[in-house]
Write a structure and sequence with these properties.
CATH superfamily: Alkaline Phosphatase, subunit A
Number of strands: 12
CATH architecture: 3-Layer(aba) Sandwich
Shape: globular
Structural class: alpha/beta
Length: about 300
């Protein structure tokens, strides 16, 4: 645990998990020093692509009830008001950087300051990824390699959507720039908590057997003994079973903070590597924000 609250940068590659390949060296370098795992999502209702983008982002911020209310869907009994992130997480100051108009509207609804990614990338004539990384770090109070006492935001979420393989190249280059600026010994590295989240986007029936969360051992359990096998924690919420867990195509996540996060055995950010070697295994996507907020001293620890 750090002796001061961290400041969190979350890079979210929406639908980009399918397109990562060995050439994306910065993504894999991050995974090799990070704590990695899966974030499970629920089954999706029939929806448009814009609805999927917002719904899955809402799960990352544990704001699915807000999404249901905003979409006119039935939320939990007694839920009729939308709480902001600041209200839920001890005054958390957070921004969303995105070019998605649908996500912009939802972000504002839950109290995020929303900035356009395309505008952020055009604020300097230097190397694009370096300029964007500098702007993102500046929002968190990191300037000129220094950590300022006061920052505009405690956390910044960056949403990068699918644009063939361009999205992966952009996020790979951005990760490389951030890691270079947060070298060991710098003021940045001691306070920056970096998360990289990659999702599979829209899924099909073919994905069920290609990216399964369940292990072969779990799949092979005799139904007669199924009740004797403890349920995995990602299938539970408190003492209640989550009945809508999607057992395939989870989000991939790598989290890194120098001398704070644990390093596991993962050396590449791929489904296969995480399935065999990750240290965090599977947690529900809606617990992700709680993990991040804990590092910012804005929430109690989730899990062990």
């Amino acid at each position: 645990m750090a002796d001061k609250p961290s400041r969190a940068l979350v890079l979210y590659g929406d639908g980009l998990a399918r397109f990562v390949d060995p050439s994306n060296s910065h993504i894999h370098s991050l995974a090799s020093v990070a704590s990695c795992g899966f974030l499970s999502l629920p089954h999706a209702p029939p929806e448009t692509e814009n609805e999927r983008v917002v719904r899955e982002f809402a799960h990352l911020l544990d704001a699915s009830e807000a999404y249901k209310l905003a979409s006119g869907l039935k939320a939990k009994a007694g839920e009729n008001e939308i709480s902001t992130l600041a209200e839920r997480f001890m005054g958390l100051k957070a921004a969303l950087v995105t070019d998605s108009s649908a996500l912009t509207s939802f972000g504002k609804l839950i109290g995020l300051d929303v900035l356009r990614l395309c505008e952020l990338c055009q604020k300097s004539d230097t190397v694009p990824s370096d300029a964007t990384a500098s702007e993102l770090l500046r929002l968190l109070g990191f300037e000129g390699g220094k950590c300022l006492d006061v920052s505009l935001y405690d956390s910044v979420f960056v949403h990068i959507g699918v644009d063939e393989h361009k999205g992966v190249r952009n996020i790979d280059s951005l990760v490389g720039s951030i890691i270079r600026m947060a070298q060991p010994g710098s003021e940045i590295v001691s306070r920056l908590h970096l998360s990289l989240v990659l999702s599979y986007g829209s899924v099909t029936d073919k994905d069920v057997s290609v990216f399964p969360v369940k292990t072969p051992q779990e799949e092979g359990i005799n139904p007669a003994f199924a009740g004797l096998v403890p349920r995995q924690s990602y299938t539970m919420r408190g003492e209640k079973t989550r009945d809508d867990v999607r057992d395939y195509c989870p989000m991939l996540v790598a989290q890194w903070q120098h001398a704070v996060t644990r390093k596991d055995l993962v050396d590449t950010l791929s489904f296969e590597a995480l399935q065999k070697l990750c240290g965090n295994l599977v947690i529900p996507a809606d617990r992700f924000i709680h993990e991040v907020a804990f590092k910012l001293w804005k929430a109690p620890k989730y899990g062990a």
